[in-house]
Design brief:
The chain is an alpha/beta fold. The chain has a single domain, classed as Rossmann fold (3-Layer(aba) Sandwich). The chain is built from four helices and six strands, in the order βαββααβαββ. Strands 2-3-4-1-5-6 form a six-stranded mixed sheet, sandwiched between helices. Helix 2 packs across helix 4 and helix 3 runs parallel beside helix 4. The protein starts with a strand and ends with a strand.
Length: about 130
């Protein structure tokens, strides 16, 4: 597993596509956290915007840890991108605070299971694990 973290629009998906040798994000090999079903994450090459999966799971009152374990068990070679949500202003809305914390904790768990972790800043990857 490879994890790519960073702020919004920092080039995480472009880098994931590059290291996966995939030409376009519209490929069926990319599962999009905001729209694709959780099952897609178990079969794809890249999971993009995992923090959006976390948000959707919380809205359905499901535990993101279960999805992380399923990915670890069934798709251990996947490349995952996730936004760092905890670097900005703390949201006023209680659900958004819960999402922010859960996404951060998910990133920690994914990093633990990843052989490589990259942080993207201005399109430049820095390997941190």
């Amino acid at each position: 597993m490879k994890l790519i973290i960073g702020g919004a629009w920092q080039g995480k998906l472009d880098y994931a596509l590059q290291i996966a040798n995939i030409e376009t994000k519209d490929s069926e090999k990319v599962a999009e956290g905001a729209t694709d079903p959780c099952e897609a994450a178990l079969e794809c090459t890249i999971i993009h915007n995992f923090h959006d999966y976390v948000r959707r799971l919380l809205q359905e009152e499901k535990d993101p840890d279960q999805m992380i374990q399923e990915i670890v068990d069934h798709n251990p070679d996947v490349i995952i991108t996730i936004n760092e949500l905890g670097c900005g202003i703390v949201p006023e809305d209680p659900f958004d605070r819960r999402w922010r914390e859960s996404a951060g904790r998910a990133a920690v768990k994914l990093a633990k299971h990843s052989g490589e972790v990259y942080r993207m800043v201005c399109g430049i990857p820095a390997r941190i694990k």
